[in-house]
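[recover] target loaded
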């Protein structure tokens, strides 16, 4: 099964976002996706750009400096998702360092600097991952607001 299908099966699906045709840097794309969700704000945390629900619970960290010369996004994920995605496509997904744990038992990392003939960032999939992270950490009222859109 393709990872997009696996991500949809394991962690749900994107509802109502329009990602096609986006332009700009990876951070600008992540910013557009995350800030479109109810109550999400952006601020620096642990030396990285981070997006929080109502300023409290992180839905993703954008890393472009983690001592590996890679650009990546780290998101909380339900149990089993990290393992499934990393096993399916280890060149795209990874297990973030233990410092990315915290409140959640697992986080998933996805590389955003893969633009080449064989590996291209799927921004619809990134939007699904970010939305699913939001649904994992957001209060019920914010999830209800997203569902009403």
């Amino acid at each position: 099964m393709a990872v997009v299908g696996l991500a949809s099966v394991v962690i749900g699906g994107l509802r109502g976002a329009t990602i096609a045709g986006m332009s700009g840097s990876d951070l600008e794309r992540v910013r557009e996706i995350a800030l479109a969700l109810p109550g999400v704000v952006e601020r620096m945390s642990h030396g990285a750009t981070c997006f929080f629900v109502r300023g409290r619970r992180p839905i993703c960290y954008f890393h472009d400096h983690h001592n590996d010369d890679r650009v990546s996004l780290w998101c909380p994920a339900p149990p089993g998702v990290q393992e499934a995605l990393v096993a399916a496509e280890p060149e795209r997904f990874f297990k973030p360092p233990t410092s990315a744990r915290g409140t959640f038992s697992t986080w998933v990392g996805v590389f955003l600097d893969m633009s080449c003939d064989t590996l291209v960032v799927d921004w619809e999939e990134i939007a699904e991952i970010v939305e699913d992270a939001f649904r994992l950490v957001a209060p019920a009222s914010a999830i209800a607001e997203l569902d009403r859109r």
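[recover] notes: Confidence is low (pLDDT under 50) at residues 1-24.
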